[in-house]
Sequence to fold (490 residues):
Amino acid sequence: MNSSVRVRFAPSPTGYLHIGGARTALINWLFARQQGGTFILRIEDTDLERSTQEAVETILGGLKWLGLGWDEGPFYQTHSLEEHKAVAYKLLESGHAYKSYETKEELDALRKAAEEAKVPFTFRGKQLTAEEEAERSAAGIPYVIRFKVPREEGTVTFTDLVYGEQTKRYADIEDFVLLRGDGTPLYLLSNVADDIAQRVTHVIRGQDGLSNTPKQTLIYQALGVPVPLFAHLPLILDSKRTKLSKRKHGAAATVGFYEDAGFLPEAFLNFIALLGWSPGDDREILSLEEMRDVFTFDRMSHTNAIFNLAPADPRNFTDPKAIWMNSEYIKTMPIDQLLPRLKPYLEKAGLWRDAFEGDEAPWFANTVNVIRERFRTLMDFTTYGRPYFSDEFEFDPEAVKKNFKDAALKDLFPALADRLEALTEFTHETVEAALRQLAEERDVKAGLLINGSRTALTGQSVGPSMFDVFTTIGQSRVVKRLRDAVSQIP
RNA sequence: GCCGCUAUGGUGUAAUCGGUUAACACGCCGCCCUCUCACGGCGGAGAGUACGGGUUCGAGCCCCGUUAGCGGUACCA
Fold:
């Protein structure tokens, strides 16, 4: 930490870490790292009804998976409620806030009347005399503490790092509530109080906070403390342009879904970074370090981006570009970095063997290298990749139909098995020579044997170049599978 | 209702101080490669920049209005 920059990610633990939250965390992280600053994690759990420890765990787990480590925290907002109240009372003492005795019903009626009259409703509480005040407090009448917006003509102005200078007239800001009737603080206050206490210098959050910023700025000013810089980020919406939510979109709106689906965190981060930001040139594939080095707020878009959660194309279970990006990472990532990422997925599918990290390590690396070329998620290694790691795999009926339709294969498979079994060296070249020779002798196309073998060895009709498949699966398993496949021929 | 933010192909973005035929990527289509499917290579369709005015020699970029979307307008966060 060699700079005074302090930023925070402040999620509410009311659900899962969703995509928008992940991007907010990412931008905070990028900026902190770029500036040599501090990245703080704060859990805004003041909504007791909806906050759960489980949600906290999910958020921490999500950040960990993404590799967005924090330097301070997690701080829990509920742990400093007393400090937040103290801030409200300080404002009360300095005359920047007051006790307001209006009931909810009275306010509702006022609001309704204003709306019907089509005039702006900007609540201004009654100015009570000390006498009246004493009277009410003696009678134990409940009150809330409201911020007293300056009564004179004037504006609040702040410069948003993304949206530019923002100005709002005092007259358009109502006297908002700081403390409820029961004395508990509201979000607007707690948020500011924590940001001050944690010495946050840059508030980087979703664009939905933009409208609240004038009010929060007023609080900073009334307290006589420096106002942080704000950077509001455009929102991430679904294809119907509504906000992403677990309730509406299910798991696909959460970060955990992408981990389960076999996304590489690097690819996921890369994709969401490009939702609302670009490096300014034509680069699309950027590592975290590259993004950190070139990130600037002024290259942030002002427009909400659409994340295509569930495109019409059945081949794509989420945004096609996200899948494409993941496949790019799978294909090009250094193999020794990819292998450890694969382990948990293979373990979960029951395909992992410890030998992959021991005796069979070279074979494992080579096999992954051969098959990754056409995979799009890490999960593909457990489905399409299964025949390479296990002898128990299914035959795809379509593949059988397509590649086993020639009955001659009933004789050809055992014959090929015999030839391959006899090979003293089992290489790309020797296998190809044996196969082509057999095809020639029997006067069949090599393609018949090649495509038939693909299905015999993998159960599938698609896959890597066949001679690579022979050698990765290995002589003895190839021979056995060719012989066993005869029973599958209709 | 009121206050504010936004508006470039289906999607994500680009387009120096306004300056030729609005660029790139994903997706889609076709061709090539080929033992299959991908990858890769080549090519194509797809926006005249929400709409309407204005300023200007010239507007996607500036101004005004309209519309639409989003946010705020809570003793929610």
Summary: The mean pLDDT of chain A is 92. The CA atoms of residues 395 and 459 of chain A lie 4 Å apart. DSSP finds 22 helices and twelve strands in chain A. Residues 19-35 of chain A form the longest helix (17 residues).
